Amino acid sequence: MDIRPNILVICGRNKRRSRTAEFLFKNDSRMNIRSAGLSPKSDRKLQQSDVDWSDLIFVMDDEQPKRVRSLYRGNDIPNILVLHIDDIYEYRDPELVELLLDRINEGIESEFKL
C-alpha cells in the first residue's frame, strides 16, 4: 500500500483560501489534507502538531513562509511552496477553485511525482 503524503495549506485566517483548498482535496486519494491560518483570529490556527504532521506545506504569499519558520524556529519544517494567490476571493469562488486546483496539483506532482 502506498503512503499518502500529508499536505498542509495555510493562509491568513483560514476562512477562504486554505479552507477552499481543503474542501477541494479532502477526498483526493493521493493525499491527506488539512488547512490552518496564521492569524490568532483564524478559524483554525496553525499549531505545532500541524507542522509536525505535514510532509509539504502550501502558503498563499511570499511572506507566509517566513512567518511559519519564525513561529516554529528550531523545528524540522517540511518544504514550503508559495501559491501566489491574493486574498481577494471568497470561499469556493470559481476563480479561486481553478487557481488552487492548478497550483496545488502542480506542486504535488513536482514534489511527489503523483
TrEMBL record:
Pinpoint the Phosphotyrosine protein phosphatase I domain residues.
5-114
Top-rank lineage group of the source organism: Bacteria
**Which SUPFAM superfamilies does the entry mention?**
Phosphotyrosine protein phosphatases I
Stated name of the protein: Protein-tyrosine-phosphatase
Upper lineage: Bacteria, Pseudomonadati, Bacteroidota, Flavobacteriia, Flavobacteriales
